[in-house]
Amino acid sequence: MASFVFPPMAVLCVASPAFIDVFLSERWEPAALVFSILAPIGALQAVTALNGALLMATGRTDLRLRLTFEFTLIWVIAAPFLAMINLTAVAIGYAAVFVIYLPRTLQLFLKPIDASIREYAAAVSIPLLVACGLALGHFAAKAVLPLSPWAEIGLAASEVLIGYGLTAWILRGRLREDLRTIRRLFSTITPQTAATDPSAALQQ
């Protein structure tokens, strides 16, 4: 999930003015800053949102409820004060609350599968580094090249493809192992079992 989501969101974060100018018009340009602030948080949310399915699979829906309750409580307290400032403050505040609460999120949903935050960080480190590299590369290209909005979008699309290729090449061994694991899991479910006893197939 991180390999799929992080590269495009990193590029969108730094190229948001061009995308908004082309697809939404100049009138929406003030929203570019808000989008740039929230894009990295959206990428992290896409990955950590897997905790819902994981906690359900391990029979710990109580932890999922606790996560939702705690984060909502913190945000409900912070949001009114931030809203009195401006929309940018709300975006920055939401990003800050999410990042501050992230260790708690990881602690609760990794514990049932005996995984540590360090292991989780290592698992997403390559996509994260690639994403940061793409963002820095885009900044550098904008600094030296006179790019029109359409040209910048073309550059962004190229960067995403490069990010995917680079991530796939670096993680090729791990991806092959994951594919073998998935095949082993599905091979334990025979067509006869799935047809005659769906509940048994699901348990397998």
How would you describe what is shown here?
This protein is an all-alpha fold and 204 residues long. The chain has 2 domains: 169 residues, no CATH class; 28 residues, no CATH class. Helix content is 84%, strand content 0%. Helix 2 packs parallel to helix 5, helix 4 runs antiparallel to helix 5 and helix 6 packs antiparallel against helix 7. The longest helix is centred in the middle third of the chain and has 28 residues. The protein is flat, with a radius of gyration of 21 Å.
* Share of helical residues: over 70%
- SSE string: HHHHHHHHHH
> How many domains, in number, for the residues?
2
**Class based on secondary structure composition and strand pairing:** mainly alpha
Extended strand count? 0
Specify Rg, calculated over alpha carbons: 21 Å
Count of DSSP helices?
Answer: 10
Task: Note the gap between the termini.
Answer: 24 Å
